[in-house]
Write a structure and sequence with these properties.
binds guanine, seven-stranded mixed sheet, TIM Barrel, about 35% helix, single chain, alpha/beta, four-stranded parallel sheet, Urease, subunit C, domain 1, binds zinc ion
């Protein structure tokens, strides 16, 4: 597989892990190509070839030697809140009190550019360190929190999707903006940032409870006018659902609130979706909307057990999210391990290939980015990671006992953390390794 006529600048050599097909459709989806090179030029993948062939063909370009490591596409974290980084691991509360006690006070601090910039830089650095090359995030309701995010993502050339959180009621005054001002601000961000370089703006109503009908309608209007994704929360917690239905008594269920305001469609990303009714599941499937599954957050806040298999069987697109700060860490391997455990508890365990799919190729499809990222396919952007499968003693012990790729990958997902990430490349540039920090 090669893409001709582009000047190659880098060969990365190691063991290439990739999908032959969708692991939800058929078993045997993974293949590991030993001693292969990823050949890169102009930020794109040009070829995936046996290392000796690549060396013969491009003898003069730089080679980075990751033999003994697994080379994968960079991971996608499809849901998180960068302004909540400093309140991860906050004890004891379910969703609504957690928002009141920890989240809203912290988000109120994002009226200062220097603070927002510092947190955006930290979050993006932690993404790289954890092998995440595409984060999808909520900012806060302050426009400068959006500016801080995009400024830094652009400087790193990190592909990202982010949006200003829309809130005009039921939260501290410091976080509320009248809906017309916020609408104008988001339009302005779309004009300046959306589709520029590797950045995309998502329309981001926090959840129905913190937006008036007018604001939700305005968000729907923006969605109809622009090709942006829309991200929000749905059906995370029983108290949250009761609150929604009391605020919107005209709606029969939570999903109908979004539907009524023009926020349900193939570009909608709903985080959580744990307590959906049969009607809601059917409507979601018909609409083409996606659910972002955030298992570590759901366990941490005690929100409930997401029925991954059921939603896959219903044809609903999924992706995984760490949901920092309700999720206690950005570590995507831990998110995959928690997704396994949650599915195991419901007697419908996801396998290793399916878990990785939901953080790579499957996630890219869900985010409509599969023409750009998520696969080791010539022509796509060279967002890559190298994993050391023997990074820790426990990992090495288990890895060396594995008798198949799937078994080895499962060990990596269960036992791995950022120590396993030996390098992260964004558009062909190495942006993180334990020896060279950004
Ligand atoms: N629902 C509304 N806002 C939030 C948030 O910040 N985190 C989570 N997990 N759920 C939410
Ligand atoms: Zn969230």
């Amino acid at each position: 597989m090669t893409s001709e006529n582009t000047h190659a600048t880098l060969r990365i050599t190691g063991d290439v892990l990739r999908f032959r097909h969708d692991p939800f459709a058929q078993d045997g989806a993974l293949e590991l190509l030993g001693d292969h090179s990823l050949v890169i030029g102009q930020g794109k993948l040009l070829a995936v070839l046996p290392a000796n062939e690549a060396r013969q063909r491009w003898p003069d370009c730089e080679e980075q030697d990751y033999r003994g490591h697994w080379l994968l596409p960079g991971l996608i974290d499809a849901h998180g809140h960068y302004p909540q980084l400093a309140i991860t691991a906050s004890w004891g509360a379910e969703l609504l009190p957690w928002l009141e006690q920890y989240t809203f006070p912290e988000e109120s601090r994002f009226d200062r550019s220097d603070y927002a910039r510092d947190m955006a830089a930290r979050y993006q650095r932690l993404c790289l360190q954890n092998g995440i090359t595409t984060p999808v995030v909520f900012c806060t309701s302050h426009p400068l929190s959006v500016e801080a995010w995009f400024e830094q993502a652009e400087a790193l050339n990190m592909r990202s999707i982010a949006g200003q959180v829309l809130m005009d009621r039921n939260a501290p005054d410091a976080l509320l903006r009248d809906h017309e001002t916020a609408l104008e601000e988001v339009q302005n961000q779309i004009g300046r940032r959306h589709g520029h370089g590797r950045q995309q703006v998502a329309i981001t109503p926090r959840f129905a409870a913190t937006s008036s009908r007018e604001q939700l309608q305005g968000a729907g209007w923006l969605m109809a006018r622009h090709d942006c994704l829309m991200q929000t929360h749905l059906s995370e917690n029983p108290d949250e659902i009761r609150w929604m239905l009391s605020l919107f008594p005209e709606c029969r269920d939570y999903l109908e609130i979004y539907e009524k305001h023009g926020l349900l469609g193939p570009r909608s990303l709903f985080a959580h979706g744990i307590h959906l009714s049969e009607d809601e599941t059917r409507l979601l499937a018909e609409s083409g909307a996606a659910i972002i599954h955030c298992p570590s957050s759901n366990l941490f806040l005690g929100s409930g057990l997401f029925a991954a298999r059921k939603l896959v069987d219903a044809g609903i697109p999924l992706a995984l999210g760490a949901d920092v700060g309700a999720g206690p860490s950005l570590n995507p391997f831990s998110v995959m391990a928690r997704a396994y455990e949650v599915s195991r508890l419901q007697s419908a365990p996801l396998n290793a290939a399916q878990l990785l799919w939901l953080a790579t190729e499957g996630a890219a499809q869900t985010l409509k980015l599969d023409a750009c990222i998520g696969r080791l396919q010539p022509g796509l952007e060279a967002d890559l990671i190298a994993l050391n499968p023997q990074a820790t003693e426990a990992l090495a012990l288990r890895y060396n006992r594995a008798e198949s790729i799937e078994e080895a990958l499962f060990a990596l997902l269960c036992l791995g953390d950022d120590r396993m990430v030996a390098a992260t490349w964004l558009a062909g540039e190495q942006r993180w390794s334990p020896y060279s920090r950004v």
